[in-house]
Hints:
The protein is α/β, with parallel strands linked by helices. It has two domains: 4-174, Peroxisomal Thiolase, Chain A, domain 1 (3-Layer(aba) Sandwich); 178-327, Thiolase/Chalcone synthase (Peroxisomal Thiolase, Chain A, domain 1, 3-Layer(aba) Sandwich). Helices cover 33% and strands 24% of the residues. The chain has eleven helices and 13 strands. It has helices at 21-28, 32-39, 53-68, 92-99, 116-129, 153-156, 206-210, 223-242, 259-269, 280-283, 290-300, and strands spanning 4-13, 17-20, 43-46, 77-81, 107-110, 135-142, 162-171, 177-185, 193-194, 217-218, 251-254, 309-316, 320-327. The strands form four sheets. A five-stranded mixed β-sheet has the order 1-7-6-4-5, with helices on both faces. It has a four-stranded mixed β-sheet with strand order 8-13-12-11, sandwiched between helices. The two termini are 20 Å apart.
Amino acid sequence: MATSVTIKSTGSYLPEKVLSNQDLALSLGLDEGWIAQRTGVMRRHIAAKDQATSDLATIAAKRALENAKMEIGDIDMILVSTGISDTTFPPTACRVHKNLDAANIPAMDISASCSGFLYAIATANAYIKSAMAKNILLVCSEIRSKFINYQDPNTASVYGDGAGAVILSASDEKDKGFIDIHLGADSRGSEAITIPAGGTRIPPTHETLNSGLHYIHFHDKSIIKSAVRGIKEEVDTRLKYLGIDKNQIDVVIAHQMNLRMLESLSKRMKISMDKFVINIQNRGNTSSASIPIAMDEAINAGKIKAGDLVLFISYGAGFTWGSSFYRF
């Protein structure tokens, strides 16, 4: 069995189209400064009309494979985290599997909203630790723009599209890899952020389409406060359990939900914003893809170096959350 599970490579992809606050303010009838002040987002990438979730995922996956100098034949399993698939079924992972011309290896979707990256990490870690797989391709791909009412500032101002990928591998390195992975959920918040129609509870009809029930809806704006409180409690608990001092953390890569949330989290956790990887200004909230995209960009920019202790944290609809400590 593997001594550790390591991140062999990363890759990401952002659609070519960029929607600026200036452009968005016209449809919302708002001042563009209001958007930046409220969310911290200045611009976001938007998928083309003919791009689906699997298309973004495939490009990010190919980049991760290239960076690892691996072929698809080296991969034992494909995991795709997404909140909105290409179609109700088959799984988006199977479409990525086809696009990559993979052999008869397992492929499955994981749905945990913005916490999907950490839920997928936990799943991959378990498969590798149990020797059921040696190399796993994990992709988080999200297209929210096609489910946004661009007259609703609560959703239109923050979301963006993109995909991030990592290849996780078994390793005998004892001083590198995942130190801890922890997940949680609180279903009392399950109705805070939803797409009300389109599933089995409210199947699609002309009426649901006309009523805008296929758009993303914020039903509880207190989610940001809940996220900050929940993440702080999660991290405090794991630090105590692991016997790690917060000053030992070199880099924090959090889900890019809202810049104000990240600033509040930094203040409450008493961890300098200098340690946070921040890209929400130019990417928006890309849901489960936000952490792997931010990590890929940070690695390419030299912001993460060998030996760094990195904290991954996320919080999303459901409510779901997760945290992980990783030694690079």
